[in-house]
Amino acid sequence: MKSIKLIFFLLFIIILNSCKGKNETNSENFSINIELKNKLETILLKDQGIREIVNGNLSDERKTELLTKLNLKETDIKGNKKFLLMNRIDSLNLLEVENIIKNYGYPSKSLVGKPANKAVFYVIQHSEKIEKYLPLIRKAAENGDISKTSLALTEDRNLMYKGLEQIYGTQIKGKANKNGEWIYFLWPIKNIDSINIWRKEVGFEQNIEEYLIEMDVEFKLYKINELKDL
After folding, report:
1. What is the DSSP string of 140-178?
2. Alpha-carbon distance 226 to 121, whole Å?
């Protein structure tokens, strides 16, 4: 009899724990705004997908996959059309993101999950309104909704747009030189002696030298007033 009671007691504990786990899962799922999550994931796909296409370093299979997901045809990305298309996508994404910010602030991981939480960051990063939304990005990083490296990218890009030296060495600029050739160079850095310390503090795994090797950019330091002579 005791053994039967013990079996029933163990079964009760198992069922109780199972129900508790289900309730916790349902509670987590319930906190996610599914409609907003889906909208942000679509925005993220457009933002990153078109850049994959523009960069061109992708297989035919991947390109076909992206064209299908983005509802595009091969003719839509032919020649310079892909750059015009990217600008149009960025403009439309920004309109949607600004409306989302008005209603929700920065969409947190607890509200939309991953990777939807990154969508607003990417759209702002690819806009001309970085300075306006930089406090929002800083707060999102402080809350853990985006990484410190994402914030570092935004801080550097904002400084570059303002014609100032960057801090973390994330920004590489392209321009036509005096001979009409397109060149890429590291945007001027505020303090080269400390840059690898700062990069490590915000979570970058590569030092500045390794980063430039990966980006195939010459490790050459310029001052702001030297850029006009490139």
Report:
1. HHHTTSS-HHHHHHHHHHHHHHTT--BSSS--EEEEE-T
2. 31
- Ranking 4-8, 159-163, 194-198 by mean pLDDT, the lowest is 4-8
Q: Quote the tokens at residue 141.
A: 């990083």
pLDDT in tens, 66-77: 999 999 999 999
Cis-peptide, bond into residue 107, ω within 30° of zero: no
Return d(Cα 99, Cα 102) in angstroms, integer.
Answer: 5
Per-residue buried b or exposed e for 23-51, using 16+ beta carbons within 10 Å of the residue's own CB: eeeeeeeeeebeebbebbbbbbebbbbbe
Host H or E run for residue 90:
helix 81-104
Q: How far apart are CA 97 and CA 43, in angstroms?
A: 8
Do 152 and 167 form a contact (C-beta atoms < 8 A)? Answer: yes
pLDDT digits (tens, 9 = 90+) for 60-99: 999 999 999 999 999 999 999 999 999 999 999 999 999 9
